[in-house]
Design a protein that fits this description.
The protein is mainly α. The chain is built from three helices and three strands, in the order H-E-H-E-E-H. Helix 2 runs antiparallel to helix 3. The protein is elongated.
């Protein structure tokens, strides 16, 4: 078993380490992913597509989370894609909500940072 931990803040948009370091994708070094939740392995749609492509090619056999197991079959891959898309939607909505909140504060006269001179 090989453990590859992700940092708290990942600035580049490619996740997980399975694809970022280039060792596990075609050498069959890894055959599964153990993660806390499905949304932790996909920060954008491209990452999730790469994971499913690895499953289709047979390099990745299963993904296990705290409460679920996603194997290499169509129904479980579809569910994984839905959960990853939902996480992307929630992340995008957070950005919209923050911008709206900052705009409201400015309209009320409360600058979110140092007031301009």
């Amino acid at each position: 078993m090989h453990e590859a931990r992700e940092p708290q803040c990942q600035r580049d948009r490619t996740a997980p380490r399975l694809q970022r370091d280039g060792r596990g994708d075609t050498t069959k070094k890894y055959n599964g992913i153990l993660t806390w939740a499905p949304d932790r392995i996909s920060r954008n749609a491209g990452d999730l597509g790469k994971i499913v492509d690895l499953m289709d090619a047979g390099y990745l056999q299963e993904i296990r989370t705290f409460g679920q197991k996603f194997g290499n079959n169509p129904n479980e891959k579809f569910l994984l894609m839905i959960l990853g898309s939902q996480a992307k939607l929630e992340n995008d909505n957070r950005g919209v909500n923050v911008k709206r909140g900052l705009r409201t504060r400015v309209e009320m006269g409360l600058w979110p940072g140092v007031a301009p001179l």
